[in-house]
Amino acid sequence: MKLKFRITQGNYIMDLQTLALHAGYKKDSQGTMAVPIYQTTAYEFRDMEHAADLFALKELGNIYTRLNNPTTDIFEKRFTTLEGGEAALATASGMSAIFFAIVNAAEAGDNIICAQQLYGGSLTLSGHTLKRFGIEARFFNVHNPKEIENLVDEKTKAIFFESLTNPSIDVADIEAITKIANKHNILTIVDNTVATPILCRPFEFRADITVHSASKYTTGQGLAIGGIIVERKNLIEKLKGNPRYDHFNTPDASYHGLVYTDTGLPPFTLRGRLSLLRDLGAVVSPFNSWLFIQGMETLSLRMKEHSKNALMLAEFLESHPKVKKVNYPGLKSNKNFKNAQKYFTDDLCSGLLSFEVKNLEEAQKIVNATKLYSLVVNIGDSKSIITHPASTTHQQLSHEELVACGVPEGLIRISCGLESAKDLIEDLKQALEA
User: Fold this and answer.
1) 36 upstream amide cis, omega within 30 of 0
2) pTM of the predicted model as reported, rounded to 2 decimal places
3) Backbone phi, then psi, for 260, in 5-degree steps?
């Protein structure tokens, strides 16, 4: 594995696979090898002074599971370590992670700049739902980061994009985007769900915040819904005194006049926990956090196999006469290949790919003819999934919007599972020729 995808523990450089098994957990008094599930709502305080000190942040500890939980704390710490960040906040879903990350940066009257190529739910959130909160979304083509310059003004609070887009399967030029953002002192929020920290680490290219749907590759078997926000190391240096983010630098009346950049704690995560998670309550259950911890133990192994299967399937599809176009950055013919070589490790590009056939009718015929693939609107499962985005995840978009975000009506998305690549190819071959 390339050196930049490893993390230093003391004086020793430890592989991500090792950290995925051990980071964030010191065995409890029972010596349990498995992380315990602390399935509880509340926690008993030692006395009145202890309770008051916890609420005043004079002492850190458990208060109420809507704010923190020991199992979730281990999940947050372990994921932070893999991503190479400083702190993390787990949430009830990937969409709540995205929402919290955006509204932690922006408020009514502000704007955010988003890539056109986003997951359908993210497009709806940014283009429609946030509008009702008074936050405007402006869009740029992920293949042309220079468009961002003309969209920035004094009210711009975040630039939001995906490291590997779903379902157009584009690889963002992370460094080009963060360079523009840092020039204007604006936060960047990167959805790293599809790549995972195993394949792509945006903080090494100066991104500020990552968000993930842990419901995807993190759990790996479609077992649980959850999300997570990770803050990079030393983000306080960007937030402190930055006039774009007064709410981090002025007293919060809802929390005893707390100034988040004066606490010595990671400010983005702290405000997300004390203001947003506390008030909006989109908290992950301890059991789901435990499931994510189990999934992380095999994440690096699974991402390698997902990626190998996807590349073999993409190569088959590229050679099939009925396929107009294949979107997979591991293909040398793909326009994203250069970016994938720069931002992804060991030539692995995840298990997600898409391909285009001549029209909607042909796409429907192929999807319905598959036998091994499950028609499901999810990704990252150990079992292979096939989806027609234009009629499902992106159905709410107009024809023009579908084209703009890279989702034509003939597009089919596949999340390659861990089955034999030979079997996956054979099933798709018979579906294409049915």
Assistant:
1) no
2) 0.93
3) -65, -35
